[in-house]
Write a structure and sequence with these properties.
Layout: E1 2-9, H1 13-30, E2 35-39, H2 44-50, H3 56-63, E3 67-72, H4 87-97, E4 102-108, H5 121-124, E5 129-135, E6 145-147, E7 152-154, H6 160-176, E8 180-185, H7 191-204, E9 211-216, H8 217-226, E10 233-236, H9 238-252, E11 259-263, E12 267-271, H10 288-301, H11 305-320, E13 323-324, H12 326-333, E14 343-344, H13 347-358
Parallel strand pairs: 1-2, 1-3, 3-12, 5-10, 8-9, 8-10, 13-14
Antiparallel strand pairs: 4-5, 4-11, 6-7, 11-12
Helix pairs in contact: 1-10, 1-13, 6-7, 8-9, 10-11, 11-13
The structure holds nicotinamide-adenine-dinucleotide.
Length: 359
């Protein structure tokens, strides 16, 4: 029995969550997966009810589950809350409790949305479909630090087991994609990066089908915006991955479209955007980031590429038909190409259209 925790959260979370859940249920039923979906309160809504963003009861349900599907948390209502009980604290606690050590962030440009990218068409036309596998639980964000008036330091510390598991995650991911893996580091300067390179080289012999390369992070930052088509899968440290995954996201031009997975003891799937309080409750949010998070759940948690492919293709077809939520309608309307008429639709309408494609 596949046990899924569903935590829609705050702001647009429940709106996009309901749509994504329908699609997820449809594919689970279609493939005959036995499942149970357990809803929990998480984030601001949990603070309102229990005084904390992640209650003990919710946590014990999570610890007995196979995966978590998250909406988004936070909003102005809780901005002045005691920092120890802010909604975002719940997110950090969740990642820690789930021992999520690998963050998968795809950046893909959908054909019909090419004009939403800030990059030149001549670059985009060569295709952008990148997956950044970022180490999430170690490195400089967690290393020893000291902060004084006149000096301060942070430490980039990585142990062999930490590097091995994330590098393996990178190879496994590359195997499910284009079988090309690039290690991004700063091995010309950092000792920790040199250990990453050594271990990357050792593990590569277990994956002879994967074509490997390595690149310094400064070069990778340039290449991502000048020649993103060169990349398939990237594996990198926490700090470099944090920066590069945001750079990669921006080149797709559509924050509402991007999913993510955090893999560990219990895997977490969520869109990369926040709770968008400015548009919450209006049925205009783009649910595609969350729908594609459900597709990632199939591919990376249930190891089922069939439903993952189907969901991704259904999203493609709906975009190709010209259906757009407001966020992607506005940016692409000007560039209406080949006589295609764009139709502005609501959260629920685009969800229904994707479900219809699947049916
Ligand atoms: P945001 O991602 O919520 O919104 C940024 C902009 O993008 C807004 O204009 C919003 O309307 C738009 N947007 C985001 N998602 C969209 C979607 N699916 N469809 C259409 N438009 C969308 O970032 P923010 O405004 O900086 O943060 C709002 C709240 O979310 C804050 O409380 C923040 O702490 C929280 N937050 C939560 C997460 C998370 O849950 N993982 C991540 C980031 C921010």
């Amino acid at each position: 029995m596949f046990k899924l925790i569903y935590a829609p959260g705050d702001g647009i979370g429940p709106e996009i969550g309901d749509v994504a859940l329908k699609i997820l249920r449809f594919e689970l039923d279609k493939y005959g997966v036995e499942y149970k979906i357990i809803p929990i309160l998480f984030g601001g809504v949990s603070i309102d009810k229990f005084g904390v963003p992640l209650s003990d009861d919710a946590l014990s349900l999570i610890k007995n589950s196979d995966a978590v599907l998250l909406g988004s948390v936070g909003g102005p209502k809780w901005d002045n809350a005691d920092p120890s009980v802010r909604p975002e604290k719940g997110l950090l606690a969740l990642r820690k409790e789930c021992e999520a050590y690998a963050n998968y962030r795809p950046a893909k440009i959908y054909g019909p949305l090419k004009d939403a990218s800030p990059l030149k068409r001549s670059i985009i036309d060569r295709g952008v479909d990148i997956m950044i596998v970022r180490e999430l639980s170690g490195g400089i964000y967690f290393g020893k630090r000291s902060e004084g008036e006149d000096e301060a330091f942070d430490t980039e510390y990585y142990s062999r087991p930490e590097i091995e598991r994330i590098v393996k995650a990178g190879f496994e991911c590359a195997m499910k994609r284009g079988k090309k893996l690039c290690l991004v580091d700063k091995a010309n300067v950092l000792a920790s990066s040199r250990l990453w390179r050594k271990i990357f080289g050792e593990i590569s012999s277990d994956y002879p089908k994967v074509e490997t390369s390595s690149m310094y992070v400064d070069n990778a930052a340039m290449q991502l915006s000048s020649a993103p088509y060169k990349f398939d899968t990237i594996v990198t440290s926490n700090l470099f991955g944090d920066i590069l995954s945001d750079e990669a996201a921006v080149i797709t031009g559509s924050i509402g479209m991007l999913p993510s997975a955090s893999i560990g003891k219990i895997d977490i799937f969520e869109p990369i955007h926040g709770s968008a309080p400015d548009i919450a409750g209006k049925n205009i949010a783009n649910p595609i980031g969350m729908i594609l998070s459900a597709a990632m759940l199939f591919r990376y948690n249930l190891n089922m590429s069939g439903p993952a492919d189907e969901i991704e293709k259904a999203v493609d077809r709906v975009l190709n038909k010209g259906l757009r939520t407001a966020d992607i309608y506005d940016r692409s309307a000007e560039a209406e190409t080949a006589g295609k008429t764009l139709v502005k639709v609501s959260t629920t309408e685009i969800g229904e259209a994707i479900l219809n494609e699947l049916e």
